[in-house]
Amino acid sequence: MEPNKGLVSALFLSFLLHATMASPTPKPHIKPRPPPHHPCRHLTFYFHDIIFNGKNSKNATAAIVGSPPWGNRTILAGQSHFGNLVVFDDPITLDNNLHSAPVGRAQGFYIYDRKDIFTAWLGFSFVFNSTQHRGSINFAGADPLMNKTRDISIIGGTGDFFMTRGVATLETDAFEGEVYFRLRVDIKLYECW
Ligand SMILES: *[C@@H]1O[C@H](CO)[C@@H](O)[C@H](O)[C@H]1NC(C)=O
Ligand SMILES: *[C@@H]1O[C@H](CO)[C@@H](O)[C@H](O)[C@H]1NC(C)=O
Ligand SMILES: *[C@@H]1O[C@H](CO)[C@@H](O)[C@H](O)[C@H]1NC(C)=O
Ligand SMILES: *[C@@H]1O[C@H](CO)[C@@H](O)[C@H](O)[C@H]1NC(C)=O
User: Fold this and answer.
1) How many percent of the chain have pLDDT more than 90?
2) Where does the UniProt annotation place the signal sequence (predicted)?
3) 38-191 belongs to which homologous superfamily?
């Protein structure tokens, strides 16, 4: 039997229409790469933590307020200081000199939260009240402090830093025994109002 030429050409036409109009280009199943992140604001500060050790009460900016049963509040406990809670009110400076004029205060706490390695959890604010900056930036996150650099979250802000969010890269710039350490804080804000 002779094939139905009309039906064949109709099918062919519908195939062509389908191929050219219905789906312009089939999308490959590849996740689109997110756009690169660029901070809207970039700031660098240092802050200085001097832990009370029983002798430096005039100089100390931090105190051990919690200790595990095997320790005390004058000296950080054994087992990687696990269980110690330290509260601080530290000067913030623009350079790495403890004696530079402070531009604000770093206020909050850290908890040592692992027995087999030095690591902490940080929750604190940078509080500014100068002509240069007014307001606060709030930080929170895990601080694996044996790493050269580590990132913590910037979860909000007030004043000049209203509703901000971002990431802060911490680096231990110096430490002296278990009494003094200095952190370099590289602040990258990705939400600026
Ligand atoms: C305060 O403590 C720091 C860190 O231990 C030390 O470098 C500095 O000399 C001390 N200042 C005074 C006045 O004791
Ligand atoms: C705290 O613990 C340390 C280390 O175990 C010890 O040398 C020191 O005497 C203790 N201090 C107090 C006030 O108990
Ligand atoms: C901020 O500084 C101003 C002027 O120096 C002062 O009047 C104000 O009380 C300060 N605010 C806080 C919260 O310290
Ligand atoms: C810390 O350093 C270790 C080893 O270099 C690495 O595996 C880990 O991802 C780092 N962690 C953070 C949070 O940077």
Assistant:
1) 78
2) 1-22
3) Allene oxide cyclase-like (2.40.480.10)
Q: Do residues 183 and 147 touch, judged by C-beta distance below 8 A?
A: no
Question: How much distance in Å is there from the Cα of 129 to the middle of ligand 3?
Answer: 6
Q: Examine the pLDDT at 83 and tell me if it is beyond 80.
A: yes
Residue nearest to atom 1 of ligand 2 (CA): 72
pLDDT digits (tens, 9 = 90+) for 121-152: 999 999 999 888 999 999 999 999 999 999 99
Domain boundaries, the chain: 38-191
* Any atom of ligand 2 within 6 Å of the Cβ of 55: no
Ligand 1 atom 4: residue of nearest CA: 180
Atom of ligand 2 nearest to the CA of 73: 1
Buried b (16+ CB within 10 A) or exposed e, 114-148: eeeeebbbbebbbbbeeeebebbbbbebebebeee
Closest ligand by atom to 75 CA: 2
- State if pTM tops 0.85: no
